[in-house]
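Bug report (template v2)

What were you trying to do?
Predict the complex of my protein with flavin mononucleotide.

What happened?
Run completed; filing so the output is reviewed.

Input:
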Amino acid sequence: MTDLYTEALKTFSGLLEEARAVGDPEPTAMTLATVGEGGQPSARTVLLKGVDERGFVFYTNYESNKGRQLAANPRAALLFLWKTLREQVQAKIEGAVEPVSAAEADAYFASRPRESQIGAWASLQSRTLASRELFEDRIAAFEQKFAGDEVTRPPYWSGFRVVPEMMEFWYGARFRLHERQRYERLDGVWQTRMLYP
Ligand SMILES: Cc1cc2nc3c(=O)[nH]c(=O)nc-3n(C[C@H](O)[C@H](O)[C@H](O)COP(=O)(O)O)c2cc1C
């Protein structure tokens, strides 16, 4: 890890805190972009559940579209847009993706509300749902299965960590020029520069 990477992570964490402080309704919501085997990019919102020098963590169903795309092509882009922060701020992260450890996923799963834990079992995420009742029946069935017990983590539900190779911050400015600062790891060394906005 280099000082510039530390600086980029600190900038990110500072902005996230600021977004929370100014009342952003979903400060950890981020667009996750992946590319599957066919080369078609796909994007959806997920929640950031952890960030440190190892990278940016989110949790999902490994058998979902995104899960299968990441298995085929373990690279991703993340995008935060904090609309109510300053004059709007965007943070963009790109890098390789790796699974989190089973212990890490277990600990996070255990911290979730019971309804979400049951939901993780009941939802065949990204597959065709013939009727809403079918989903409700599956929820009821898993509630019964785990009645009186702790809900264990489904084997196909876990986290991914995006290990940054690029982090970029775009700062809006209503009456001035926008600012854009990019950090990237080139030949193993973190560098930073400004870009035309
Ligand atoms: C605010 C918000 C937060 C979400 N958070 C997550 C999340 O953390 N994990 C997840 O798997 N899906 C999350 N979703 C649902 C995803 O956007 C998406 O519909 C789902 O993961 C299926 O995506 P896929 O078919 O591309 O795999 C969230 C949706 C919204 C609107």
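What did the reviewer find?
DSSP finds five helices and nine strands in the chain. The two ends are 27 Å apart (CA to CA).
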